[in-house]
């Protein structure tokens, strides 16, 4: 039957000592195979003004039509009043590895007359995903944790060739502590190579000027040359200048490529000479997917969680921490138990000392009493001896014993008459 506390089989298992090979050596392999079978969860968010090519890029990036083609918005049609957030999920399989990809779209961003608060619903969305993760982490069964946190945010910059707009800066300033920001220059095929190079410089200096933290390709020290070169190559392309297209077009030399055809030629999406699409894809899907997930978990989520706990009043009452941190709770219980033991010991010592003192006092008292009695008896005996010796001397000297005179001068004749 199923093992249970009543089942004797299980207690014999526990009592057995582990000798030799257990099979831990296979664990990494097992974990790896399991995660390959279960697949990875990755959530990307796209933000940018309408018409910058967000849906097109996502479809291009993951080589699927994640986004069904949209009906163009009729001029008289009403625009959505707020920044609405939509998310679309898809399972993508590549070389037997399944990736559950979720793309969070934010249509309507920056489309209003007053865009001051455009970032707000996006921050709220990101934080509510942190909230749901935290809630799952605190559940008893933590095996089925679904990670819906946003691991990367592609921020689309309009290809103006000037500098960043106020809305861009505001958005990045509000979001850079909550999400991995990856700025991209949209529709890069509308600019010349030189314009793109200058625009990139301006964007980077704006970002630096406003102390905005964008996702950094990790710097490796003890890696092989190839890895270092790849990391440097990717870093040098940020902000990625991208061109998106799901359509195949013919090139003058007769190839069929994903790209955009113009009277002056074809811009190829997958050609690194033409745009940074390949580098962006490489960074997201191949090189840094794990880093993006890790940074989200270890830094962004962790900072948010700490801040949240502090704002919930951990300072005034540490129970929040204990509820969340079993180690802290155990430690506290141990300290309390030790304090209790120490108190009991001190009490026992005190009682013992008191008893000893009482006994000592009693002994001392009886000793004094004995000594006093002994002294008394000794004195009485001494007196008797003196008296007798007195009498003896008088008898020996032959004098008759005369009674002593009393105070009134009369003889006390009652002793010997
Ligand atoms: P919303 O859904 O309204 O927020 O727009 P979006 O940002 O998703 O843009 P979408 O992908 O729908 O593209 C808008 C238009 O731009 C379409 O006509 C696309 O064909 C075109 N487009 C997309 N990517 C590019 C690009 O890289 N270069 C050029 N020139 N046009 C593009």
TrEMBL record:
Q: Which CDD domains match?
A: CDC_Septin (cd01850)
Biased composition range(s): Basic and acidic residues:
374-397
Residue ranges, annotated region (Disordered)? 374-417
Q: Which GO terms describe its biological process?
A: cell division
Keyword Cell division recorded: yes
Q: What's one GO MF term for it?
A: GTP binding
Q: Which domain of life is it from?
A: Eukaryota
Give an example GO cellular component term for this record.
septin cytoskeleton
Q: Which InterPro entries match?
A: G_SEPTIN_dom, P-loop_NTPase, Septin
Instruction: Please verify whether the record's keywords include GTP-binding.
Output: yes
Pfam families documented for this protein: Septin
Q: Which Gene3D superfamilies does this UniProt record tie to the protein?
A: P-loop containing nucleotide triphosphate hydrolases
**Which key words are in the record?**
Cell cycle, Cell division, GTP-binding, Nucleotide-binding
Compositionally biased region (Basic residues): 408-417
* Residue intervals of the Septin-type G domain: 38-311
Q: Which PANTHER family match?
A: SEPTIN
Q: Which family does it belong to?
A: Belongs to the TRAFAC class TrmE-Era-EngA-EngB-Septin-like GTPase superfamily. Septin GTPase family.
Protein name (database record): Cell division control/GTP binding protein
Q: Write the lineage as a comma-separated list.
A: Eukaryota, Fungi, Dikarya, Basidiomycota, Agaricomycotina
């Amino acid at each position: 039957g199923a093992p249970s506390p009543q089942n004797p089989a299980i207690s014999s298992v526990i009592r057995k000592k582990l000798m030799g090979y257990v099979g831990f050596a296979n664990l990494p392999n097992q974990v790896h195979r399991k995660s390959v079978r279960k697949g990875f969860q990755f959530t990307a968010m796209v933000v940018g003004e309408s018409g910058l090519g967000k849906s097109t890029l996502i479809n291009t990036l993951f080589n699927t039509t994640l986004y069904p083609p949209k009906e163009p918005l009729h001029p008289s049609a009403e625009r959505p009043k707020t920044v609405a957030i939509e998310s679309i999920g898809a399972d993508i399989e590549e070389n037997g590895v399944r990736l559950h990809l979720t793309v969070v779209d934010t249509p309507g961003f920056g489309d209003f007359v007053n865009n001051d608060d455009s970032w707000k619903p996006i921050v709220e969305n990101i934080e509510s995903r942190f909230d749901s993760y935290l809630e799952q982490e605190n559940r008893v069964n933590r095996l089925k944790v679904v990670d819906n946190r946003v691991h990367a945010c592609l921020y689309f910059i309009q290809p103006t060739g000037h500098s960043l707009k106020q809305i861009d800066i505001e958005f990045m300033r509000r979001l850079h502590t909550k999400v991995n920001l990856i700025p991209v220059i949209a529709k890069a095929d509308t600019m010349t190579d030189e314009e793109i190079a200058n625009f990139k410089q301006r964007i980077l200096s704006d970002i630096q000027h406003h102390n905005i933290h964008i996702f950094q390709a990790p710097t490796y020290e003890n890696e092989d040359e190839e890895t270092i070169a790849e990391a440097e190559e990717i870093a040098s392309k940020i902000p990625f200048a991208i061109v998106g297209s799901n359509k195949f077009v013919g090139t003058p030399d007769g190839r069929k490529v994903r790209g955009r055809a113009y009277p002056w030629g074809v811009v190829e999406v997958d050609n690194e000479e033409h745009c940074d699409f390949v580098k962006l894809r490489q960074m997201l899907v191949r090189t840094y997917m794990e880093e993006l997930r890790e940074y989200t978990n270890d830094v962004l989520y962790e900072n948010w969680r700490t801040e949240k706990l502090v704002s919930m009043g951990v300072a005034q009452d540490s129970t929040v921490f204990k509820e969340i941190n079993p180690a802290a709770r155990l430690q506290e219980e141990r300290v309390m138990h030790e304090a209790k033991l120490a108190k009991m010991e001190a009490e026992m010592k005190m009682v013992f000392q008191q008893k000893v003192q009482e006994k000592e006092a009693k002994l001392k008292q009886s000793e004094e009493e004995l000594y006093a009695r002994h002294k008394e008896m000794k004195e009485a005996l001494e007196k008797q001896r003196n008296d007798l010796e007195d009498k003896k001397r008088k008898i020996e000297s032959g004098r008759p014993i005369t009674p002593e005179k009393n105070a009134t001068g009369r003889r006390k004749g009652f002793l010997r008459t």
